[in-house]
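Apologies for my clumsy wording, but could you write out the amino acids of a protein and the tokens describing how it folds?
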Amino acid sequence: MFYGHPLQFGTFLTPSNADPATPVRLAQLSEELGYDLVTFQDHPYQPRFLDTWTLLSWVAARTERIHVSGNVLNLPLRPPAVLARAAASLDLLSGGRFELGLGAGGFWDAIGAMGGRTLTAGQSVDALSEAIDVIRAIWNVDDRSVLRQGGEFYRLDGAKRGPAPAHDIPIMLGAYKPRMLRLTGRKADGWLPSLARLGPGDFQRASVIIDQAATDAGRDPRAIRRLVNISGRFTPAGGGFLEGPSRQWAEDLLPYVLQDGVGTFIVMGDDPAVLERFAAEVAPALRAAVAREHPGTPGRRRRRRRLLTMDGKCLAKPAFGVLSDRTPGTAGRHRPCLLGGSGERESLLQ
């Protein structure tokens, strides 16, 4: 089913602290290339990673347009009332560019070693459900009542509300199992799985569960954006799923938009060449194909911006309208060339 969301694209970067400047620069490159969203995994018990919340704040301060999110934030080590205020604060400081990706938790031994409460799978889903209520209650400054919430995992007893975020922050859940999928349908604004973790038909079956749960809760299933993390390899000849030239990538991904309602593709990996090629060739081809099938679908207008390579060289062409002839092993050396016109863009899927 096509849900009518404007098609968006993001990146999923590693928050490595080996060179702290690298994930920041890749986030800036993501913005320059025209991506809508930059995301980072969140494993607070991993000493090889920068703290994700600190990194999100730093990236938001070093960019202008792109939205930022955890993919997904580790709830058991981030108390929801504090997280709600931190999220609203970052949203205010960034001009409404924060999105809240949440996970129920995993790697419970590591979480316990950091002082977090270890939970069963079922308890973690219940805790996440309570946390969503806490977060939304903190954000709801229009409600003047005393904020009290009694839960098994998270309680509020007279907490002050606010601040309100700059925009309605969407809450997106990383969900795979039926209970998490039903929670997504009941309470979330988005569903954020990784395609590599799903077998054939799993995405479609999970989407049915989400839609039914949304309907049972009196919600419109179309209000829940489908975001998906993707990974693959660009190769001259076609191979398996997302292994081949740009045209094949676009053809592989298009059914997920038209038949399964995906509104956001998030490219996993830290290779600038992959991020550049996807932005230059796959993203515009997908947008053109969706526009042909659904001419009334709202799009996003973008400012013309300079594009910067990882070493700071300029590509003075508009985002999602540049083809780069990067040769493997020649990082930073580009000869930008404009896509000819709408006909040339569309030819990628004709």
